[in-house]
Amino acid sequence: MTAPPRAREPITVPVALGDRAYDIVIGRGVAATLGQTIGKMRAGARTVIVTDENVASHHLAAAEAALKQAGVASSRIVVVPGEGSKNIPTFERVCEEIIGARIERGDLAIALGGGVIGDLAGFAASCVRRGIDFVQVPTTLLAQVDSSVGGKTGINSRHGKNLIGAFHQPVLVLADTALLDTLPPREFRAGYAEVAKYGLLGDAGFFAWLEQNWRDMFAGGPAREHAIAVCCRAKAAIVARDERETGERALLNLGHTFGHALEAGCGFSQRLLHGEAVALGMVMAFDYSARKGLCSAADAARARAHLAAVGLPTHVREVPGGVPGVDALMDLIAQDKKVKRGALTFILVRGIGQAFIESNVDPADVRAFLTDAVA
Ligand SMILES: NC(=O)c1ccc[n+]([C@@H]2O[C@H](COP(=O)([O-])OP(=O)(O)OC[C@H]3O[C@@H](n4cnc5c(N)ncnc54)[C@H](O)[C@@H]3O)[C@@H](O)[C@H]2O)c1
Ligand SMILES: [Zn+2]
Asked: Are 262 and 277 in contact (CB under 8 A)?
């Protein structure tokens, strides 16, 4: 892994998806170029910004000013913050307001926010007028390294998360790392679990670099842009090879089967944020792999030690109020992953940076493992 560049020039990561190719532009202050960039890309286009109240209070005025300065017309749709807005009533409202703002094909929706806004606005953009283009301006670390890249959009059903959605790629992603300065530290840390995930799943060099440089990244130094660019490159490469998750893209789910079960078991509440659940889930994937003799105990310990060093939970006893018992977790795991002929699919590891898809995991083994892990 090379050292981050000294000068803080924006980094462009291309996403190679043929006629749906787009750039991710990463840098401190790049959101100020929003108007110019859109003006160049789509002369005369109108825009509508979709955001939430928290993000609006910090960053909406600047985004609108950047558009206005470049002569780009804009209107705004502000929704209530949180996962609850990924529902049908809010989706309906966003669609109606996009249409009401006279946004037509050729115009642009702008998702200014975290993963909730990206998923909600992206899905609305995929449906309004059978699909309008949209720009992602991700404002959480999770959104900058994960949800804004790859084109998955959607909302939740009463039957489960993200069950109503579409693949709809953005035409541009502007990841302004300065926007993360206003993010609550706990949200930043949770997003960091997804950053570490890229090292743990496929890039041991990056993981070693993170062990040395995470403090600079948290503090907003140049390591931040570098780390985000490495993650975006990794996700872009995987998505370009497997856009619709028929194979390799599943590696991005490292830690997510155990993690989702824990998250669901905590009722998707503030007790356990998604990234915190992913940190726990990755530790469990390493421990499970070590127990099966696939990975060394030393690598499992190293993964845990780094996540603990940044302040992420690495043992279920750290979850306030505790987690559900083994039976409930097994039920949630079975719901999350289609059980094929009695076997489960998990992302397991042979070591740091060596994840693989194992579709023949015996539920009895997982149960035995969880019995010890939850004890
Ligand atoms: N589409 C995908 O590929 C994909 C991938 C991963 C996750 N997701 C989805 O992403 C969502 C989680 O995203 P998230 O963690 O970004 O949550 P989020 O969008 O709810 O943001 C977290 C909190 O931070 C606030 N916030 C956002 N940016 C801020 C800023 N710059 N300053 C201050 N506060 C700010 C928000 O208002 C919210 O309260 C989930 O719904 C998940 O399903 C989607
Ligand atoms: Zn995730």
From this structure: yes
- Which amino acid, residue 312? L
55 CA from centroid of ligand 1 (Å) = 10
pLDDT digits (tens, 9 = 90+) for 275-299: 999 999 999 999 999 999 999 999 9
Closest C-alpha to 38, from 49, 51, 54, 27: 49
Residue range 64-75, pLDDT digits in tens: 999 999 999 999
Ligand (nearest to CA of 268): 1
Residue 127 identity: C
Mean pLDDT of 131-158: 96
Positions marked catalytic: 130, 152, 194, 235, 245, 249, 253, 256, 260, 274
Burial of 71 (0-12, 13-18, 19+ CB in 10 A): exposed
Q: Is 242 in the pocket of ligand 1 (CB under 6 A)?
A: no
DSSP 332: H
Determine whether 287 is exposed, middle or buried from the number of CB atoms within 10 Å of its CB (0-12, 13-18, 19+): buried
Using CB atoms within 10 Å of the CB of residue 254, give its burial: 0 to 12 exposed, 13 to 18 middle, 19+ buried: buried
Assess whether the C-beta atom of 129 lies below 6 angstroms from ligand 1. no
Q: Which atom of ligand 1 is nearest to the CA of 182?
A: 32
